[in-house]
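Support request from a user on the community tier.

User writes: "When I paste my structure tokens into the form, the page sometimes reloads and wipes my input. The last time it worked, I copied everything first. Here is what I submitted, just in case something in the input itself triggers the reload:"
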């Protein structure tokens, strides 16, 4: 299988680069070698590599920055995935693209299914929703995998921030009214490789038969407060912590340029029903992720 991976240095892309390598030839790129703000460069890269499968983990994920840099967010998160999908369809390749729980407004009060209507609250969510639509419209074999609260121990994220705050603050206040599914990027990358391996030599028609949008994130959901408590508890170097109390706070205490959905947990049963597996419980995955620290 010949695979083209975009976003190889990101949280998810870094893991994908390693897990997808077992499938065959992998050509992996990231900024600045490839710049998603240039549709021509994206088109040229896909044509030059002419892969059987394209996996896109590149994105503008700076949620607050997207409010003031909406043109860049739209170019990277919407226009470029649209170009990749068009080129992929023209090549007869399959395209796996990632999207986000932030396409929802968080007002449903229970986990979102793929049948729920997106209503993003911020520019990042709007650009990702536009990307989903562009990928779908291109008409080729595609999967859009919406995921949530992605973390990695190698790049700055909520988990690494909590570990740092626990070494700097005796009392930590963490939003208890923001809920999602914490997702270890390594589990998501492994699941992506497992999917492609299941398709095997017939991966393109196999994915074509199953094409669509799917939710795939750590099993179960948690507030940021619950998540922070678990991070502090699983820290293998607890002796370095000075934190004594973790207090529940409200999102309103931490004003940010971008509004965030409060309850954006994802229901992943369509993925499980279609492909026969799910990501493990978020606490279990977090423990495994922290063991490597
Ligand atoms: N992080 C989350 O909590 C979360 C939640 C739900 C869904 N997702 C989705 O999951 C996917 C992977 O997210 P992630 O957390 O792994 O993202 P990430 O760590 O921010 O990685 C994104 C990658 O895209 C690259 N990139 C940014 N601008 C680019 C450009 N103009 N041209 C080419 N590449 C560019 C980044 O390079 P630089 O580092 O140099 O900018 C980075 O390597 C994305 O589709 C994201 O929307 C993420």
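"...and here is what came back when it finally went through:"
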């Amino acid at each position: 299988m010949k695979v083209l991976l975009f976003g190889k240095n990101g949280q998810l892309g870094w893991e994908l680069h390693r897990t997808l390598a077992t499938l065959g030839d992998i050509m992996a790129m990231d900024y600045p070698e490839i710049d998603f703000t240039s549709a021509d460069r994206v088109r040229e890269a896909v044509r030059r590599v002419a892969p059987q499968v394209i996996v896109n983990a590149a994105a503008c994920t700076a949620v607050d920055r997207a409010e003031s840099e909406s043109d860049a967010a739209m170019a990277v998160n919407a226009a470029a995935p649209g170009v990749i999908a068009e080129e992929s369809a023209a090549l007869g390749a399959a395209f796996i693209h990632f999207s986000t729980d932030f396409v929802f407004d968080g007002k449903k009060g229970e986990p979102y299914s793929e049948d729920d209507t997106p209503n993003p609250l911020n520019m990042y969510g709007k650009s990702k929703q536009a990307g989903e639509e562009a990928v779908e419209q291109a008409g080729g074999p595609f999967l859009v995998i919406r995921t949530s609260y992605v973390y990695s121990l190698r790049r700055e994220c909520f988990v690494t921030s909590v570990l740092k705050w626990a070494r700097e603050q005796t009392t930590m206040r963490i939003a208890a009214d923001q809920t999602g599914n914490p997702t270890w990027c390594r589990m998501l990358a492994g699941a992506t490789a497992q999917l492609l391996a299941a398709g095997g030599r017939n991966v393109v028609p196999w994915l074509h038969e199953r094409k669509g949008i799917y939710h795939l994130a750590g099993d179960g959901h948690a507030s940021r407060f619950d998540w922070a408590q678990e991070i502090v508890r699983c820290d293998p170097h607890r002796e370095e912590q000075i934190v004594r109390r973790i207090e529940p706070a409200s999102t309103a205490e931490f004003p940010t340029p971008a509004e965030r959905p409060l309850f954006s947990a994802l229901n992943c049963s369509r993925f499980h029903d279609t492909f026969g597996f799910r990501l493990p419980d978020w606490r279990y995955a977090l423990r495994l992720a922290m063991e490597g620290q």
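Agent notes: The reload is a front-end session timeout and is unrelated to the input. The pocket of NAP is lined by residues 7, 9-13, 30-31, 34-37, 57-61, 76, 98, 100-101, 128, 147-150, 155, 185 (CB under 6 Å). The first strand starts at residue 2 and ends at 6. Escalated to web team.
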